[in-house]
Amino acid sequence: MEKAIVGVIAKLRREHPVAAVGLSVAGFVAPDGKTVQFAPHLAWRQAPVAARISSRTELPVTLEHDANAAALAEYVYGAAAGASVVTLVALGTGIGCGLLLDGEIYRGAHGVAPELGHLRLVPDGRQCSCGKRGCWERYCSGTALAMTALELLSRYPGRSTVLAREAAGDPGAVTGRRVAAAARDGDEIGMMAMADLARWLGEGLALVADIYDPEIVVIAGGVSESATLFLDEAREHYARVVTGTGNRPLARIRTAQLGDDAAIVGGALLAREAVTGEPGAWRGRRLRNG
Ligand SMILES: [Zn+2]
Questions:
Q1: CATH: 3.10.580.10, 1.10.10.10, 1.10.340.30, 3.30.420.40. Which one for 2-68+261-276?
Q2: What distance in Å separates the CA atoms of residue 212 and residue 245, rounded to the nearest whole number?
Q3: Residue-range domain boundaries for the chain
Q4: In the CATH scheme, what architecture does the domain 81-258 have?
Q5: Do 2-68+261-276 and 81-258 agree at the fold level?
Q6: Mind listing the pLDDT tens digit for each residue in 188-209?
Q7: Given CB 3.0 to 4.6 Å as the disulfide criterion, which of 1, 2, 182, 234 pairs with 202?
């Protein structure tokens, strides 16, 4: 992994003047921004990644959790411009979350907050890779879409034209992306799975609203590309179940604007700040963009 990263940096240096490196990591980053404490899908455990990359490139290196970096980029340039309390919820294989308070990334005491994807919404529910059961991301992610579709297929045989054929050949062929495509084509099981995801998204966001009372929730990640299939329904469900419904302002729920680039842009913003020693222009900014 580190060799590959060093190779990418060398390639970029041949094409651009590079003064610093910002890495956005799918894992827990220590509060010092130098150590990856734990990355579920990578080999890093308490790994001094910044120092190692820095020694091989002779460039300053900063690390940030990828969802935090994406949230920052959406705050500076995208869907959450200037909002006071921003939660980014990235729906992909699981759920990645970032939280910004007046443009400052909130990491908790030990650098691991917010792990909203592992809020337990369903006691004794679906098994999660984290060891618990019933986590939000087991019901609201690309992986969840596929699981829901497979459950629905066995419960309602004959209701699907597209997905049933694909699942008959290989249940593994039914991915979140395929379910979204089937829903778009009017496949009944695909649409039911989408409605289920919408409900769980609304349900989870109502919990998030109880904890953080966000001004804006940015929905990001691969699943957000299909937002037209679920976002209105998720908003309605959220508005129905949130505490004090009808008597409180609701968070605006938007889709991300920067796509896959968001975490890269956020990592670069933090690296530039670290190398120039100048606070980023977004800090302390309290723009309200209506
Ligand atoms: Zn979990």
A1: 3.30.420.40
A2: 16
A3: 2-68+261-276, 81-258
A4: 2-Layer Sandwich (3.30)
A5: yes
A6: 999 999 999 999 999 999 999 9
A7: 234
Q: How far is the CA of 192 from the centre of ligand 1 (A)?
A: 24
How much distance in Å is there from the Cα of 246 to the middle of ligand 1? 31
CA of 147 to the centre of ligand 1 (A): 15
CA separation, residue 65 to residues 125, 157, 217, 249 (Å): 28, 42, 18, 30
pTM: 0.91
Cα-to-centroid distance, 146 and ligand 1 (Å): 17
Please, are residues 65 and 90 in contact by the beta-carbon 8 Å criterion? no
Between the CA of 124 and the centroid of ligand 1 the distance, in Å, is: 12
- Could you tell me the pLDDT band of residue 154, with boundaries at 50, 70 and 90? very high
- Quote the ligand 1 centre to 252 CA distance (angstroms): 26
Distance 177 CA to ligand 1 centre (A): 21
279: left (phi over 0), alpha (psi -120 to 50) or beta: beta
| Residue 74 alpha carbon to ligand 1 centre in Å | 26
Whether 31 shows a pLDDT value over 90: the answer reads no
